[in-house]
Amino acid sequence: MNALVRIIIVSVVAFALSYILGGVTMDSFWTAILLALTLAVLNAIVKPILILLTLPITLLTFGLFLFVINALIILLADKILDGFQVKNFWWAMLFGLLLSVVTSILYQPKDRNA
To answer: SS3 of 84, please?
Structure first.
């Protein structure tokens, strides 16, 4: 159930960001749902491989290179999905940063022990 809620939250935030950011366009809300699913798969499969391959530079930059990896994942999702377009790397980085911040604010699971 938590995964479904997270997919819906990411979809809504991504769709809203596509209206706010000029360098990111999305055709419909269904594209936003497909984007959330695609990002979930890419983050589960491709991102750990990229983190492992770029571990020295990630350590050297104190983890800031992870923002670059997030932007690359978003650009890869742009290539996979037809209705989702990102103009360039910098728009992808801004989109990824805002998507991460807003979804982490909106999705805070309740502590069951409290």
So the answer is: strand
State the CB neighbour count (10 A cutoff) for residue 108: 7
Task: Provide DSSP, 78-112.
Answer: HHH-SSEEE-SHHHHHHHHHHHHHHHHHH--PPPT
Amino acid sitting at position 83: G
C-alpha to C-alpha distance for 37 and 87, rounded to whole angstroms: 21
Kindly state the average pLDDT of the residues 81-95.
Answer: 96
Phi, psi of 26 (to 5 degrees): -140, 135
Q: Cα separation of 10 and 36, whole Å? A: 6
Cβ atoms of 107 and 5 within 8 Å: the answer is yes
| C-alpha separations of 25 from 54, 70, 91 in Å | 29, 18, 11
For the question of whether the overall pTM of this predicted structure is more than 0.70, the answer is yes
Amino acid identity, position 19: Y
